[in-house]
C-alpha cells in the first residue's frame, strides 16, 4: 500500500505524527469540562408568582390558568406543568426541546407572560412575576449552620443572601447560587386587634399609613430648565424616602391630635425585622441550617467548579461571626470523581489485560509493544475530537474509551500479525519488504474495518432528543478513536514494525530465561492447534451443509428476539450515588412544629445507621409535589464514601422506610437518587392524570383514586400513588357582600382586611443594607387561631363606624386541596410510581395509559414528564439506529466489493452478537437500557469487523490464487482464526473489568460491559463458525445468478468444488 510505504521508509515522520496527535490530545483533555452526563435534560424555564393569603384553588384559577393559557404552544415547548400551593405561591415550569437555546426560550416565555399580566390579580402584579432559566444541574449544596444555636435560621438565611451569594455567583463555572427555602428579611408588623379597637383604627387604615410614610417621593428640583431668568445653579429636592430600620417604622404616625400628641405604629403593633416566610425549617444533623444551592454553568468543569466553590467558602468562612460555620452536605462531584476514578482503574486494568493477551498470542514482546503503542496515541488523540465536537469528559465518553482499548488495538494486531506471518513463511525476506508486503495484504481490510466501525456509529450522531444526546457522545467517541487507530495502523505501526520486528531466533539458541517463557507458550500453541483443528472440522461441516447453518441461525435470531422482548427495560439503570431521598408525610393539615418533631426523631435514628454521614432535613416542603406543605418534609441522607461502607443505597432505602414506620405520627418513603437529575425526582415515572372535558377538582380526585387502586393491583406496577388530595381540612370564608354593601363597607377594604390580619398582607418595600425587602402586615399569633377571632377584626362602615368582620364573614369547615397542579392547560393529578420486578419502565407507562382508558374512558389521559416522557418519545429510536447502522455497513461493503451479495455474508455475524449481548444481560439478571443498546451497536460493529477478515481473505484466495469458493472459505477461516480469536479475546478480557467493576457507577458499567463482553464472546465462538458457510452459500448463489443473467454468454469465475459436498 503506497500510503503506508511512505511511512515505512520515513519512520521518524510517522513517530512525529504520533507524538503530535498525543500532545494535541493531552492539551485538549486539560480544558475539557468534566460532568456525570452530557446535556440530556430538557432546558426548563420557570415562572413564579405570589398571591399572599390565597389558597391553592384560588391561585390555580387566577394565576396559573391565565399564565398557562398564554404560554401554551411557545416555540420548541415539550410540556408545561404548574403547581399552586396553599401558601399563595405558584410555580410553572416549561420544558423545551433538548439542544435549544435556554436564553431564547426564556425570552419567548417572558414575552408570553408580559401579555398575560393584565389578567392577574393586582396583588400578584404588585409583587411581580419572575421568569428565569432553571438549571437542573445541581452541583452541590453548601450549608450555613450554628452548632451551638447562636443564630436562628432567619439570620443565617440573610447572612448568606447579603454576604455569600454574590461571591459564589462570581466563581467560574457557577451558573447560579440561591438560598433554599426563601425566608429573607422582611419588616413584620404584628398588630394587636385590642389596641386597634382602643384607638378606633382598622387594619386597612394602618396599611394606608405605612404606604404613605414609607415611599419615595419625586419632589422635583429648583431652578430646573426651562428658565425665563437664567440661574447659576440648579438643585434637586428630596422628600421622604423608604424607611430602613425597625425604629423608623415604630415612628410611623397613625394619628395626630390638635394638642400635639400623636398615635404611633408602635402603640398598636409589634415591629421586628423578621422573615418573609416561616413555612419551611431546615436542619443538618439536628442543627439549624441555611442551605445554598449551587448550579453548574453548562459546559463548565464540575470538579474544578466544586473545588473553586469550596475554596471561596473557605475564604469567606474567615469573615463569619463566631459560632457560624459552613459544611457541604451534598456534593455531586464526589460521585463524579469516584466514577472517574473507577473508570480510570478499569482503563488501566483493561490496558494491562489486553497486553497480556497479545503477548500470549504473538509470543514476542516486540510485537506486543508495537501493537499496544497504538492504544495511548489513539485514546489521547480522541480528546482532540472531544474538543472539536464540543464534548465533555463524562461517564459515556469514558466508557467508550475503555471499550476502545480492545477496538483500537485490532488494526495494529492485524498489521503486526501479518508481518510476523510473512516473515515466518519466507526466511530470506527482509523485515522492510515483509512489512510492505503485509501492508499490501491488510491495508484494505484495515480501511474497510475502520469504515465499518464508523458506519455503525455515525448514523446515531444525527438522532435528536434525549436518545440522540446519549448515543451521540458515546458513538462518536468510538468512531473517532477507531479513525485514529486506523491512521496509526497505516502509518505508525508499519514504521515501528519495519524497525523493531526481527526474524524468529533459532530454537537452539534460546537462553534459559527465554526457554522458561516459551515453554508455557508452546503448550498454549499446542492447545490452540487442537482448538483450531476442532474449529476447522465444524467449519467444513457447516460449509458443506448450508441448510443446517440456516436452521441454526434462524433459531439464534428467534431466540435472541424472544429474550429481548422478555427482558425488562429501563431508560438508565439506577446506581448507588451515595445519597438517598426520603419524603416524610404527616396527616394533612399537620402543623410545621409537629412535622419538625417527627423529622427530628427520624433524623436522629437515621444518623445512627453505620455508613450514614449527614442527614439534611427540610420540614415544610413536599418534594413529590414540589410545593410548600407544613405536613410534609424531605430528607437528604448522605452516605460515607463507597470504599468506607458496606451498606448500599438500596439497602439504606429499606432501613429508612422501616424507621419511618417505627416513629409515631407519620411515615417516610425513601428513594434512591435518580440516575439523571432533572428527569425524575424518585427514579420512577411521573405523570399527570387529566380530563379533557373540564372536570372539577373533586371529579379529578375521584378519578385518580380509581386509577390508583387499579394501578396497584396491576402486576406490572408497584408503589403507584398520587399527590393530589381534595380532602385536606380547611376553612372557607363566606362573605355576605349584600350586607357589607348595605353598611357602606367597601368590598375591597373588606378583602384587604382579611389578607392583612389572617394572611401575609403585603404592603410595600423598605431599604436595608442597600437592598429592598418586603413589608408585611399581620395579626399577632394569639389573634388568628380560631374562627372566633373574626369578631376582633374591624372594617370601617359608610357612617364611619367600625364593624366587626364577623358581621359579614363566616368561616365554614370544608375539605379542599392543599396543592393544585396543571399539566398544560388542564388540571392534573400528579402520579408517581415504578415498574414491578420483572417489568420494564416502558411497560409500566403503557400499563398506566391502559388503566386510564379502561377505568375512565376516552375523555381522560395521562401526560408524562421527565424519564417517562423521554421513554414515550424514544419509541423505536434505538432500533432505527441499529437498522441504519447495518444499512451503512451493507452499503460500504457493497461499494468495496462491488457486489450486492457478498456484504450479506458479513452481516450474517450480527445475529450471534445479539444472542450473546442479550443473553449476558439475562444471565446476570439485568434490565435492558440505553447502555445495553449502545453495547449492542459496539458488538454489531465488531462482529462485522471479524466477518470482514474472513470474507476479505476468501475473496483474495479466489481472485489471486484461483481457489474454488469452498476452498477459499475454508482457507480464509483457517488463516484468520488465530487473529480473530486474539483480537476477540483481547477485547473480551479488556472489557471484563468494566463488566465486573465495583464502586461508583458500577451498575452502568455492568450493563455495557456485560453486553459487549458476552456479545463478543458469542461472535468469536459462534460467528466464526457460520460466516465461512454463509460466504460460500452467498458466493455460489451469486455466481449462479450471474450466469443465469448473462445467459451463459461469458465465462464465470471458477467455482470448482463449490457444488461438491
Automatic annotation (TrEMBL):
<dbReference type="InterPro" id="IPR001036">
    <property type="entry name" value="Acrflvin-R"/>
</dbReference>
<feature type="transmembrane region" description="Helical">
    <location>
        <begin position="902"/>
        <end position="922"/>
    </location>
</feature>
<dbReference type="InterPro" id="IPR000731">
    <property type="entry name" value="SSD"/>
</dbReference>
<feature type="transmembrane region" description="Helical">
    <location>
        <begin position="395"/>
        <end position="416"/>
    </location>
</feature>
<dbReference type="InterPro" id="IPR004764">
    <property type="entry name" value="MdtF-like"/>
</dbReference>
<keyword id="KW-1003">Cell membrane</keyword>
<comment type="similarity">
    <text>Belongs to the resistance-nodulation-cell division (RND) (TC 2.A.6) family.</text>
</comment>
<feature type="transmembrane region" description="Helical">
    <location>
        <begin position="877"/>
        <end position="895"/>
    </location>
</feature>
<feature type="transmembrane region" description="Helical">
    <location>
        <begin position="474"/>
        <end position="501"/>
    </location>
</feature>
<feature type="transmembrane region" description="Helical">
    <location>
        <begin position="545"/>
        <end position="564"/>
    </location>
</feature>
<keyword id="KW-0997">Cell inner membrane</keyword>
<keyword id="KW-1133">Transmembrane helix</keyword>
<feature type="transmembrane region" description="Helical">
    <location>
        <begin position="369"/>
        <end position="389"/>
    </location>
</feature>
<feature type="transmembrane region" description="Helical">
    <location>
        <begin position="975"/>
        <end position="996"/>
    </location>
</feature>
<dbReference type="Pfam" id="PF00873">
    <property type="entry name" value="ACR_tran"/>
</dbReference>
<dbReference type="GO" id="GO:0015562">
    <property type="term" value="F:efflux transmembrane transporter activity"/>
</dbReference>
<dbReference type="GO" id="GO:0042910">
    <property type="term" value="F:xenobiotic transmembrane transporter activity"/>
</dbReference>
<keyword id="KW-0472">Membrane</keyword>
<feature type="domain" description="SSD">
    <location>
        <begin position="364"/>
        <end position="499"/>
    </location>
</feature>
<dbReference type="GO" id="GO:0009636">
    <property type="term" value="P:response to toxic substance"/>
</dbReference>
<feature type="transmembrane region" description="Helical">
    <location>
        <begin position="446"/>
        <end position="468"/>
    </location>
</feature>
<keyword id="KW-0812">Transmembrane</keyword>
<feature type="transmembrane region" description="Helical">
    <location>
        <begin position="346"/>
        <end position="362"/>
    </location>
</feature>
<feature type="transmembrane region" description="Helical">
    <location>
        <begin position="1008"/>
        <end position="1037"/>
    </location>
</feature>
<feature type="transmembrane region" description="Helical">
    <location>
        <begin position="934"/>
        <end position="954"/>
    </location>
</feature>
<keyword id="KW-0813">Transport</keyword>
<dbReference type="GO" id="GO:0005886">
    <property type="term" value="C:plasma membrane"/>
</dbReference>
<dbReference type="InterPro" id="IPR027463">
    <property type="entry name" value="AcrB_DN_DC_subdom"/>
</dbReference>
<protein>
    <recommendedName>
        <fullName>Efflux pump membrane transporter</fullName>
    </recommendedName>
</protein>
Amino acid at each position: 500500500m503506497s500510503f503506508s510505504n511512505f511511512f515505512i521508509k520515513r519512520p521518524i515522520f510517522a513517530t512525529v505524527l504520533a507524538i503530535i496527535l498525543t500532545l494535541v490530545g493531552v492539551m485538549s483533555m486539560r480544558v475539557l469540562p468534566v460532568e456525570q452526563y452530557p446535556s440530556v435534560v430538557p432546558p426548563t424555564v420557570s415562572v413564579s408568582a405570589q398571591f399572599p393569603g390565597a389558597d391553592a384553588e384560588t391561585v390555580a384559577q387566577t394565576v396559573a390558568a391565565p399564565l398557562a393559557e398564554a404560554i401554551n404552544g411557545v416555540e420548541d415547548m415539550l410540556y408545561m406543568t404548574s403547581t399552586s400551593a396553599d401558601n399563595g405561591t405558584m410555580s410553572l415550569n416549561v420544558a423545551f426541546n433538548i439542544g435549544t437555546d435556554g436564553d431564547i426560550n426564556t425570552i419567548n416565555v417572558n414575552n408570553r407572560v408580559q401579555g398575560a399580566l393584565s389578567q392577574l390579580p393586582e396583588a400578584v402584579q404588585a409583587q411581580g412575576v419572575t421568569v428565569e432559566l432553571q438549571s437542573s444541574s445541581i452541583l452541590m449544596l453548601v450549608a450555613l449552620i450554628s452548632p451551638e444555636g447562636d443564630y436562628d435560621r432567619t439570620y443565617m438565611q440573610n447572612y448568606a443572601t447579603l454576604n455569600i451569594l454574590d461571591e459564589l455567583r462570581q466563581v467560574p463555572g457557577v451558573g447560579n447560587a440561591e438560598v433554599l427555602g426563601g425566608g429573607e428579611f422582611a419588616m413584620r408588623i404584628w398588630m394587636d386587634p385590642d389596641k386597634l379597637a382602643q384607638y378606633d383604627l382598622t387594619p386597612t387604615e394602618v396599611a394606608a399609613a405605612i404606604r404613605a410614610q414609607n415611599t419615595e417621593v419625586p419632589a422635583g428640583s429648583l431652578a430646573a430648565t426651562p428658565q425665563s431668568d437664567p440661574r447659576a445653579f440648579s438643585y434637586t429636592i428630596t422628600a421622604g424616602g423608604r424607611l430602613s430600620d425597625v425604629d423608623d417604622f415604630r415612628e410611623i404616625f397613625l394619628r395626630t391630635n390638635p394638642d400635639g400628641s400623636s398615635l404611633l405604629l408602635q402603640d398598636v403593633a409589634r415591629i421586628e425585622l423578621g422573615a418573609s416566610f416561616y413555612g419551611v425549617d431546615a436542619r443538618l444533623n439536628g442543627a439549624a441550617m441555611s442551605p445554598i444551592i449551587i448550579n453548574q454553568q453548562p459546559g463548565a468543569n464540575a470538579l474544578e467548579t466544586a473545588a473553586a466553590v469550596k475554596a471561596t467558602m473557605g475564604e469567606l468562612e474567615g469573615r463569619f461571626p463566631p459560632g457560624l460555620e459552613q459544611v457541604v452536605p451534598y456534593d455531586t462531584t464526589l460521585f463524579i470523581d469516584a466514577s472517574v476514578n473507577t473508570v480510570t482503574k478499569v482503563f488501566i486494568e483493561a490496558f494491562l489485560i489486553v497486553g497480556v493477551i497479545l503477548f500470549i498470542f504473538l509470543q514476542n514482546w516486540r510485537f506486543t509493544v508495537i501493537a499496544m503503542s497504538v492504544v495511548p496515541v489513539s485514546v489521547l488523540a480522541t480528546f482532540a475530537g472531544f474538543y472539536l465536537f464540543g464534548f465533555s469528559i463524562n461517564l459515556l465518553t469514558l466508557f467508550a474509551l475503555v471499550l476502545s482499548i480492545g477496538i483500537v488495538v485490532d488494526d495494529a494486531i492485524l498489521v503486526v500479525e501479518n508481518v510476523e506471518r510473512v516473515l515466518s513463511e519466507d526466511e530470506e525476506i527482509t523485515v522492510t519488504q515483509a512489512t510492505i508486503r503485509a501492508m499490501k495484504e491488510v491495508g484494505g481490510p484495515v480501511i474497510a474495518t475502520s469504515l465499518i466501525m464508523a458506519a455503525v456509529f455515525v448514523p446515531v450522531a444525527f438522532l435528536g432528543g434525549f436518545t440522540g444526546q446519549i448515543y451521540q457522545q458515546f458513538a462518536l467517541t468510538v468512531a473517532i478513536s477507531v479513525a485514529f487507530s486506523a491512521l496509526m495502523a497505516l502509518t505508525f505501526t508499519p514504521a515501528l514494525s519495519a524497525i523493531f520486528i526481527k526474524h524468529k531466533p533459532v530454537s537452539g539458541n534460546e537462553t534459559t530465561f527465554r526457554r522458561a517463557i516459551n515453554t508455557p507458550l508452546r503448550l498454549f500453541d499446542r492447545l490452540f492447534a487442537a482448538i483450531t483443528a476442532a474449529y476447522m472440522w465444524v467449519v467444513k461441516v457447516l460449509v458443506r451443509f448450508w441448510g443446517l447453518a440456516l436452521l441454526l441461525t434462524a433459531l439464534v435470531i428467534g431466540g435472541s428476539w424472544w429474550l429481548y422482548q422478555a427482558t425488562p427495560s429501563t431508560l438508565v439503570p439506577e446506581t448507588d450515588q451515595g445519597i438517598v431521598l426520603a419524603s416524610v408525610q404527616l396527616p394533612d393539615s399537620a402543623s410545621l412544629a409537629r412535622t419538625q418533631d417527627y423529622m427530628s426523631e427520624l433524623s436522629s435514628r437515621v444518623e445512627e445507621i453505620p455508613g450514614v454521614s449527614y442527614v439534611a432535613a427540610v420540614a415544610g416542603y413536599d418534594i413529590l409535589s414540589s410545593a410548600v406543605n407544613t405536613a410534609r418534609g424531605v430528607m437528604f441522607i448522605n452516605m460515607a464514601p463507597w470504599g468506607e461502607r458496606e451498606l448500599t443505597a438500596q439497602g439504606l432505602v429499606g432501613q429508612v422506610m422501616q424507621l419511618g414506620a417505627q416513629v409515631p405520627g407519620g411515615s417516610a418513603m425513601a428513594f434512591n437518587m435518580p440516575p439523571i437529575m432533572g428527569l425524575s425526582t424518585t427514579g420512577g415515572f411521573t405523570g399527570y392524570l387529566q380530563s379533557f372535558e373540564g372536570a372539577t377538582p373533586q371529579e379529578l380526585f375521584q378519578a385518580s383514586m380509581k386509577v390508583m387502586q387499579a394501578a396497584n393491583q396491576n402486576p406490572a406496577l408497584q408503589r403507584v400513588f398520587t399527590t393530589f388530595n381534595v380532602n385536606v381540612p380547611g376553612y372557607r370564608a363566606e362573605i355576605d357582600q349584600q350586607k357589607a354593601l348595605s353598611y357602606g363597607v367597601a368590598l375591597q377594604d373588606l378583602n384587604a382586611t382579611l389578607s392583612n390580619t389572617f394572611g401575609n398582607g403585603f404592603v410595600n418595600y423598605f431599604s436595608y443594607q442597600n437592598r429592598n425587602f418586603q413589608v408585611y402586615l399581620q395579626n399577632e399569633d394569639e389573634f388568628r387561631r380560631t374562627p372566633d377571632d373574626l369578631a376582633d377584626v374591624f372594617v370601617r362602615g359608610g357612617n364611619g363606624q367600625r364593624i366587626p368582620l364577623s358581621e359579614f364573614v363566616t368561616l365554614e369547615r370544608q375539605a379542599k386541596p392543599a396543592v393544585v397542579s396543571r399539566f398544560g392547560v388542564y388540571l392534573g393529578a400528579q402520579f408517581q410510581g415504578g415498574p414491578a420486578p420483572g417489568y420494564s419502565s416502558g411497560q409500566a407507562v403503557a400499563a398506566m395509559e391502559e388503566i386510564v382508558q379502561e377505568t375512565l374512558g376516552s375523555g381522560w389521559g395521562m401526560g408524562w414528564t421527565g424519564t417517562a416522557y423521554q421513554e414515550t418519545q424514544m419509541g423505536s429510536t434505538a432500533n432505527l439506529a441499529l437498522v441504519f447502522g447495518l444499512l451503512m455497513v451493507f452499503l460500504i461493503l457493497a461499494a468495496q466489493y462491488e457486489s450486492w451479495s457478498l456484504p450479506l455474508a458479513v452481516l450474517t455475524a450480527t445475529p450471534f452478537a445479539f444472542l450473546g449481548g442479550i443473553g449476558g444481560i439475562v444471565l446476570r439478571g439485568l434490565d435492558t437500557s440505553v447502555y445495553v443498546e449502545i453495547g449492542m451497536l459496539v458488538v454489531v460493529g465488531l462482529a462485522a469487523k471479524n466477518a470482514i477478515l474472513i470474507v476479505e481473505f476468501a475473496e483474495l484466495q479466489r481472485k489471486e490464487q484461483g481457489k474454488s469458493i469452498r476452498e477459499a472459505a475454508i482457507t480464509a477461516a483457517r488463516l484468520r482464526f488465530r487473529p480473530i480469536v486474539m483480537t476477540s479475546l483481547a477485547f473480551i478480557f479488556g472489557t471484563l473489568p468494566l463488566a465486573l467493576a465495583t464502586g461508583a457507577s458500577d451498575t452502568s458499567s455492568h450493563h455495557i460491559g456485560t453486553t459487549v463482553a458476552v456479545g463478543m464472546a458469542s461472535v468469536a465462538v459462534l460467528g466464526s463458525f457460520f460466516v465461512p458457510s454463509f460466504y460460500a452459500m452467498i458466493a455460489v448463489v451469486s455466481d449462479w445468478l450471474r450466469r443465469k443473467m448473462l445467459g451463459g454468454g461469458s465465462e464465470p469465475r471458477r467455482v470448482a468444488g463449490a457444488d461438491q459436498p
